[in-house]
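EI: anyone free to look at a 147-residue chain?
SC: sure, send it
EI:
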Amino acid sequence: MDNVGADTGIAAYGLAVGEGFSGQFEMQHDYKEGSNLTFHVHYQGIAAPTGTDKIQFQLTYSFGKNGVTLTPVTIITVEVDIDTQYEFNQVDFAAITAADLDIEDQFLFTLERIAASATEYSGEALIATVGVHYEIDTIGSRQILVK
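SC: here you go
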């Protein structure tokens, strides 16, 4: 990550077009089972844009549930404008419908930077964090595997 030209010493994933990384997380015990998720990315543009450039991210995901096969892979994309060097931003993907999702289920994903539809941002998109917004209905669960 960079603070207006001064390296902070904090490492991040730097994504050029065609690059990405994979990750996974478990649905937490406060999650309202069956409610939608919104995956999001916090990122920074390290190079100066040429004007209003574009960055496009692609999320490929599947869910793992104990005792059954993985769900089919789903792919969603989001494109954003970038016009300020070093600006820290967040972008949300479209809501993920998760009617059968329960606590303890696994969200498995790959995040990639793909070609944008217009003026491509030439610098790397530095990925600080990824996360998911979700609805909660309890502080936690009463047992390890069930609400």
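EI: The chain has a mean pLDDT of 93.
SC: 👍
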